[in-house]
């Protein structure tokens, strides 16, 4: 539900560049149950988003969860699975780029994770700027502004303004001398 709420807040252009795959790790889940989940969660999401709901046998599930570094166990005492909640951002070539933990996800964090996966071949100037200025902080479980990166940009801008001012004043002095 947290993922659904975040996806509802994202623009269609961003959604069209991502593919979401929800994998059940309960081998008792059926295709019919997966279809019900899909219908429930896709009700309010832009149709541009590809969102698949998968089920499988115990061996297939174990292979996928091991590859993703996702661990869970069945607790007989409470008749439920014990597990964390995590989104795994994977690049087109199958490399894990980012883990985002929690049950609620900031749409900005999802977009940044998408940009990190390289899912879009042509990043806008704004996207490139965001990737330069923000990095993922695992202690806050979100992307944070890096002051050092912003200061690099600001100092470059100040240097350009100073050079422009020096050139302008130098040309003004030459005109006044004539």
Strand content: 15-25%
Written as H for each helix and E for each strand, in order along the chain, the element string is HHEHEHEEEEHHEEH
> Could you report the average pLDDT, rounded to the nearest whole number?
88
Helix content bin: 40-55%
Biggest pleated sheet: 2 strands, parallel
Largest sheet strand order: 1-2
The Cα radius of gyration reads: 24 Å
Shape: elongated
Q: Stretches where pLDDT falls below 50 for ≥5 residues?
A: none
Outline the structure in words.
With 178 residues, this protein is an alpha+beta fold. The chain is built from seven helices and eight strands. The protein has helices at residues 2-8, 12-15, 31-42, 58-68, 107-117, 125-133, 147-177, and strands at residues 19-23, 50-54, 72-75, 80-83, 86-90, 96-101, 134-137, 142-145. The chain has a two-stranded parallel sheet with strand order 1-2. A two-stranded antiparallel sheet has the order 3-4. A two-stranded antiparallel sheet has the order 5-6. The mean pLDDT is 88.
């Amino acid at each position: 539900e947290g993922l659904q709420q975040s996806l509802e807040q994202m623009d269609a252009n961003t959604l069209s560049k991502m593919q979401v795959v929800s994998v059940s790790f309960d081998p008792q889940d059926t295709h019919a149950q997966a279809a019900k989940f899909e219908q429930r969660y896709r009700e309010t999401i832009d149709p541009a988003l590809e969102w698949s709901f998968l089920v499988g046998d115990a061996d297939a599930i174990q292979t996928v969860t091991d590859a993703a570094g996702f661990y869970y166990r069945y607790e007989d005492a409470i008749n439920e699975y014990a597990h964390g909640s995590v989104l795994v951002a994977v690049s087109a070539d199958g490399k894990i780029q980012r883990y985002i933990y929690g049950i609620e996800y900031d749409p900005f964090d999802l977009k940044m994770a998408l940009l990190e996966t390289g899912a879009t071949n042509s990043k806008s100037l704004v996207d490139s700027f965001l990737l330069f200025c923000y990095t993922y902080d695992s202690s806050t479980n979100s992307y944070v502004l890096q002051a050092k990166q912003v200061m690099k940009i600001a100092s470059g801008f100040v240097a350009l303004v100073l050079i422009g001012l020096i050139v302008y004043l130098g040309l003004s002095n030459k005109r006044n001398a004539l």
